[in-house]
Design brief:
single chain; 589 residues; alpha/beta; six-stranded mixed beta sheet; four-stranded antiparallel beta sheet; 24 helices; 10 strands; 64% helix; 11% strand; elongated
Length: 589
């Protein structure tokens, strides 16, 4: 019973998808009703052509009836053209609208969703579900509706000609109903299995392609090929079963139709011989029986034809209902920004995994601050809380004494530029990666390159600013990717700059340049960094040292280095390879 209720709710949501197309649907229904009336008249004309024209040798009447029949066909085709025009509009726009809703939802989902599902699986599921749901707006559905109108006219015509023969046609319906119900139930079960297998394959495929480097290094390409074959065999097996069911359904429909037609010919011929029936009447009756049996087959097959719609619709609507980031809040267009505070902030991923335990510290406007700590201390969690990818379990994060949860999300993130250790570059040019949010402006671009110290990097590239970086910057080195990401963050001109291990691929010269950049070029920016690099730490105003989820120490590098052994050990471990070299560089600060 629970499943049926779920199906009912899903069906209600599917019907709501047609609401924006109400005007089109009304026109389509008027066209279908008009077409049904015209088609109901055609067999009657055909009956008179045979009985009153051919058999009675009335050539003039025959000509008039043939002309009338042709006129009715032309009218029907014209109505069909108008109906198709409005129907195609719906069937073309609906997939676009569904895809747009899915894309907008993807952009609003919480970051944690993507940790459990890879992009290939998301895209595959959306494409499959949109394709299946769109069936409700394609020609099949409207054909069924038009055939219902046609069937009504056909039944009226059957009873007018002969009610006894009509009972023969209707007697086949229970048999057809039972057979189709059985096949539809089996197909829906198989399609659910196919969806599960396809989703599993897509997720595996995306994961394997993303890790192709490791596959090569580990030499497990044959193992992965074996997994591919296994997963594809599962899909093929289910697909074959569904195709066999489709053929069974097609055969049952053909056999039943031939049985009905054969019976009508035998019974009709018998009645003609008994002078109780006419040849034209038999031909008209068989035409009307087609009007009835074809729609009945289509109506009874609706559950079979759309057996994959409900499972796809359920998954699609579940995706649309997935928790989003909270966007509610007031808008602060002229927020001046004087300070950023973490006020007793706590966060835990689970009862056993309490990461932050009452973190409190303040960053004044223009200050350059680092958050450091050992692995697992909660540094990245702290950054994700600031970026509102996560929500604190306790405490608040404040900007100018305003809880960031009360600021509209889109506007809030405009205040912050971010460069992470694995900063993502889009598969386009260097130019479009640096300023993706504004029109290409060469003067502005060169100013940003100069400010972010990447002029030499640009000159080394084959097409300069128009060099394509490849998928996630695959054509660049790790250091080049991070420097372009840094230029992009500076180009955004935000009030707060967050750098999460943003210099992990820098050499020592680049580290020193970064320290100089932060102090001398970004003096108007408030900078919060996660870094353990000594050249940069020495240049900062303040360091927040986190240990065991708490602020263990707060102060300048020299002070913490002298007075806190744990801090000193962490810094020495991270900088042992180039500590002596870094001391030989002088900063103009």
């Amino acid at each position: 019973m629970r499943v049926r209720q779920e199906d009912k709710r899903t069906l209600q949501r599917l019907i709501k998808l047609f609401k924006p197309y109400k005007k089109n649907i009304i026109i389509i229904f008027i066209c279908m009703l008009s077409s049904a009336v015209v088609n109901t008249l055609v067999p009657i004309i055909s009956k008179r052509i045979v009985d009153d024209g051919l058999i009675q040798n009335n050539f003039n009447l025959l000509i008039k009836l043939v002309a009338l029949s042709l006129l009715l066909v032309l009218i029907d085709q014209g109505i069909g053209f108008i109906e198709t025009r409005y129907r195609v509009l719906i069937s073309s726009i609906m997939p676009y609208e569904l895809s747009k809703r899915a894309f907008k939802q993807t952009m609003k989902l919480k970051l944690g969703y993507f940790n459990n599902t890879n992009s290939a699986a998301i895209m595959n599921n959306i494409n499959m579900d949109v394709g299946n749901i769109s069936k409700i707006a394609n020609s099949n559905l409207f054909f069924i509706v038009s055939q219902v109108f046609k069937m009504i006219g056909g039944i009226v015509g059957l009873f007018i000609i002969d009610w006894k023969l009509t009972l023969v046609v209707l007697a086949v319906l229970p048999v057809k109903y039972k057979l189709v119900k059985l096949l539809a139930k089996q197909r829906q079960k198989l399609f659910s299995e196919y969806m599960e297998a396809n989703s599993d394959y897509s997720e595996w495929y995306g994961d394997t392609v993303a890790g192709v480097r490791e596959v090569k290094l580990l030499g497990i390409d044959r193992l992965k090929t074996g997994e591919f074959i296994k997963k594809q065999r599962r899909l093929i097996k289910v697909d074959i079963k569904m195709n066999v069911l489709d053929k069974l359904n097609e055969l049952s429909e053909s056999v039943l139709f031939e049985i009905i037609t054969g019976l009508l010919y035998i019974l009709g011929a018998y009645m003609i011989l008994k002078a109780n029936f006419t040849v034209g009447g038999l031909m008209a009756f068989i035409t009307y029986s087609v009007y009835v049996t074809t729609p009945i087959s289509a109506i009874l097959n609706i559950g079979y034809t759309f057996s994959d719609v409900i499972p796809s619709a359920k998954r699609f609507f579940e995706f649309l209902d997935t928790d989003r980031e909270k966007e509610l809040g007031k808008t602060f267009l002229d927020l001046p920004f004087e300070s950023l505070k973490f006020e007793n902030v706590s966060f835990q991923y689970s009862e056993e995994n309490k990461v932050l335990k009452g973190i409190s510290f303040e960053i004044k406007k223009g200050e350059k601050v680092a958050v450091i700590g050992s692995n697992g201390a909660g540094k990245t969690t702290l950054i994700n809380l600031l970026l509102r990818f996560l929500e604190p379990d306790g405490g608040r994060i404040l900007i100018d004494d305003i809880d960031i949860a009360h600021i509209r999300l889109r506007e809030y993130r405009q205040m912050i530029s971010v460069v992470s250790q694995n900063a993502y570059l889009f598969n386009t040019t260097v130019r479009e990666n640096i300023i993706p949010f504004s029109k290409n402006n060469d003067i502005k671009l060169r100013m940003i390159a100069k400010k972010s110290r990447i002029e030499d990097l640009i000159e080394e590239l084959p097409q300069k600013y128009d060099t394509f970086v490849g998928s996630n910057g695959a054509n660049l080195s790790g250091g080049q990717r991070q420097k372009i990401a840094m230029a992009r963050a500076i180009a955004k001109e935000s009030k707060i700059l967050v750098l999460d291990e943003a210099t992990s691929n820098y050499d020592i010269e680049s580290e020193m340049e970064m320290a100089d950049l932060i102090v001398n070029q970004l003096e108007d920016k408030t900078v919060l960094m996660v870094t353990h690099k000594l050249p940069i730490l020495k240049a900062l105003d303040k360091i927040v040292f986190i240990e065991d989820g708490k602020v263990a120490a707060l102060g300048k590098h020299e002070e913490l280095y002298q007075n806190n052994k744990v801090y000193r050990d962490i810094i020495n471990n991270f900088n042992q390879d180039f500590k002596e070299k870094s001391d030989t560089y002088s900063l103009s600060i």
